Amino acid sequence: MDLFSQQWASYRAVVEHDLMGHRAVAATTAATLELWFAARPEGARAPRMVDLGCGDLALLAPLLHRLPLSSYTGLDLTAEVLPLAQQALGEVSYPCRWVEGDLLGWANDSASDDEEPVDILHSAFAIHHLSDQEKETLLQRLRTRIAPGGLFLWVDVFREPGESRNAYVQRYLHRIASSWPQLSAQQQEHVCHHLATYDNPADRGTIEAKAIAAGWQWRWAWNSTHQAEAMAVLTPA
Prior knowledge:
With 237 residues, the chain is α/β, with parallel strands linked by helices. It has helices at 3-16, 22-38, 61-66, 81-89, 103-108, 132-145, 165-179, 185-198, 204-213; strands spanning 48-52, 71-76, 96-100, 118-124, 146-159, 202-203, 216-223, 229-236.
């Protein structure tokens, strides 16, 4: 088994055992989008959706089948997951595009400025890989890409207000070691290495203030019981 397959198997084990609240996230995402669609004016054009860090769409695909979109773009930095996402989604009534790339690069792409605004932005467990400055830049750029009345669903891990990255990492590593027995030792090692090396969750209070300064309204739609995973709903102010 190659490195990608090993690491992806570890990720899939986390999802399948619901260790990070993916089921609650999927339910909250569906409920939020259904309410947003119900509130749209009659005769409004079908919305465009861009998924920043789409992964394999294992949990989102059933919802995407129900949404009356005009188009869907799935973007991910890992090229190997895009065929998995395409397979999970299958046939839908609207055109889909699959893009290998990073989310900040997409947001900063000046060539895309001439495209129609995006009605629905979605990102799950991807933005925490960016630095704090990159997150701020992302929020500013996405604000210019969102349509009036649009919706940005941000699912991720976040630090508690005032919590350092190191304190967060140590707290999460302890959580994995003490309460994730469903994972094998190798799978725990994969997750812990990724967490300690790449994760940089935003401070909840700081990122909310940065988003408001960038022209967003912010609402926490769901929070896990572990003071880490959460879902924020952002709308243009």
